[in-house]
Every structure is written in C-alpha cells, then in structure tokens.
Amino acid sequence: SADGSKVSDATLMEVLLLNDFKLVINKTAYIVSPPVKDKLSSEHATEMEDIKSLVHRLFVALHLEDHQIRKERELLQKLDHLKGELLPLEQMKARIMDRADAKTSRLLWVGLALMSTQGGALAWLTWWVYSWDIMEPVTYFITYGSAMAFYAYFVLTKQDYIYPQAKDRQFLHYFYRKSKKQRFNVERYNKLKDDLAEAEESLRRLRQPLHLRLPIQEISDKD
C-alpha cells in the first residue's frame, strides 16, 4: 500500500484499485494511481445485487434439472452397490445375532436354575438338616458376597447391575466373540451402513427440490 504495508494476495482487485498502491518489480517500486471510480449509491448497489441474483436464478433454473437427474442416477447406482455389499454381511450378522441371542438366553436360564438350586439348598439345610440359628450367618454372608459381586461389576463396567443392561452387555460380548470367529468385519459393516444412510438422505434431499421446483440455493437457505 501507499504507506509501505504489504497487501495480501487474497485481496480482491476491485478492493486494491480503490486506493493508490506501490507495485514492486525486481526491487523497483512503481506508484500506481488507479482512476477515480464513482461510488455506487446504496439503491444502485441493491439493484445490481438483485440483477445478479436474478441471473443466478435463471441459470440454476435452466440447468438444475439435468444436474439433479444425473446426480440422482449416481446416487441410485451407489445405493445399489452398497446394498449389494451389505446383503451377505446382513445375512451373516443375522446368523451371528441368532446364535448370540440363544446363548444369552441359555445363560439367563442357567442363572435362574442356579438361584433356584441355591434357594432350595438353603431351605433344606434350614428346615431338615440344621436350624435357622445356624443358617442365619450363612445366608448373611451369601447376601454380603452378592453385594460385593454387584459392586465389583460396577467397578469393572462403570454401570449399575440392571438386568436388561447386563443382558445386552452379555449379548454384545457373545456377538463380538462370534463375529471374530466368523471373520465378520463389524467396522466395515458399520461403515457401509453409514454410507447407505448418507446416500439415502442425499437422495431424499435431492428429490425434494425436484418436487418443489426450487433452486438449490433456496433449499440451502431454508436448511
């Protein structure tokens, strides 16, 4: 600039030409004095912006449909490709989930059987073998041990021992262990599912302006 400050290379030419500046070539400075340009009035500037916006709308209206049809065809091809890749993974996942669910259910039934056996054994020892005076400390320590086990579960998992959450956690444990044995790539499956959801959302957003017959800029402004 005229006071010796360097001008950024991102400065627009129309901004640079508003004032005098120095042009340095091979260490030689040349004073550049651009011609005086009458400033536009606010009404004239607004009118020019309206004309630019109108030209842009006309261009978009003339070329929007072909662009969106081509984009829709690309998205449909991408959806078909993703669904084709997901189909065998979905079938494998369904088999793994069935086995993990069956194993989790068996574990729950085993837990119920063990608790029933424990209750029956304590009742038998209390009423037929010993007396309540002898069995009371035993039941106390069993209860205290159960409390310690629940607290250890909280320390290890940072979650309360709630039966539905414990069941889901055990299901996921069996699922991931079975997935590793079956070589089911969970990360790739999740990536394909995310790509599929993104493509479906893009297709939905693309078909909305086709239905409304609105330019993309207006759709973006509404979003």
TrEMBL record:
Occurrences of domain Calcium uniporter protein C-terminal (ranges): 2-192
Record-level GO cellular component terms: uniplex complex
Gene Ontology biological-process entries: calcium import into the mitochondrion; mitochondrial calcium ion homeostasis
The protein, known as: Calcium uniporter protein
Subcellular compartments: Membrane; Mitochondrion inner membrane
Pfam families: MCU (PF04678)
UniProt entry tagged with the keyword Calcium: yes
Source organism, top-level taxon: Eukaryota
Function summary: Mitochondrial inner membrane calcium uniporter that mediates calcium uptake into mitochondria. Mitochondrial calcium homeostasis plays key roles in cellular physiology and regulates cell bioenergetics, cytoplasmic calcium signals and activation of cell death pathways.
Domain comment, as recorded: The selectivity filter, in which calcium ions are arranged in single file, is composed of two acidic rings separated by one helical turn along the central axis of the channel pore.
Keywords: Calcium, Calcium channel, Calcium transport, Ion channel, Ion transport, Membrane, Mitochondrion, Mitochondrion inner membrane, Transmembrane, Transmembrane helix, Transport
Assigned protein family: Belongs to the MCU (TC 1.A.77) family.
Membrane topology field: Multi-pass membrane protein
Molecular-function annotations in GO: calcium channel activity; calcium channel inhibitor activity; uniporter activity
Originating organism: Panurus biarmicus
